[in-house]
Amino acid sequence: MNMDNKKRHRVYINSDKLFTCNSCHCHVLDQSSIISRTFQGRNGPAYLVTNVVNVSVGTKEERMLMTGIHTVADIVCNHCQIKLGWRYLRALEKPQKYKEGKYIVEKSRVTKDFSWDDDISSS
Q: What is the spatial distance between Cα 10 and Cα 7, in angstroms, rounded to a whole number?
């Protein structure tokens, strides 16, 4: 992985609908960043997203995926180093170009961290 040893400051997402790393609960993405919920990761269902925070991008490599050959780089949580998915760097086929610069985040690696509704009255 292409990561330095410097301590990174965590980025906190100001949202009541965010997803956190399953392992360390570091903020990873806001629900509004999700483009599609129907993608496949290495370990099952995944999200295609526009933005992530608190991740490091690894070394690029050519990978044969379900939709053809892509240049990708794995992404890992900055805090606990668990692999969360990958970033699409380049797609060879024209219909797949829309994925470039976007991220796959595996559903099994993140947890929905939605705030409780303040309007609920206690009994």
A: 9
Inter-residue contact 83 to 24 (CB < 8 Å): no
CB-CB neighbours of 14 under 10 Å: 7
Question: pTM for this structure?
Answer: 0.86
Angle ∠(101,48,68) on CA atoms, nearest 5: 70
Digit-coded pLDDT (tens) for 44-68: 999 999 999 999 999 999 999 999 9
Q: Tell me how crowded residue 59 is: count the other CB atoms within 10 A of its CB.
A: 8
On whether the CB atoms of residues 29 and 49 are closer than 8 A, the answer is yes
Cα of 67 vs its chain's centroid, Å: 19
* Contact criterion met (CB below 8 Å) for 48 and 118: no
Spatial CA neighbour of 85 closest among 110, 112, 111, 113: 110
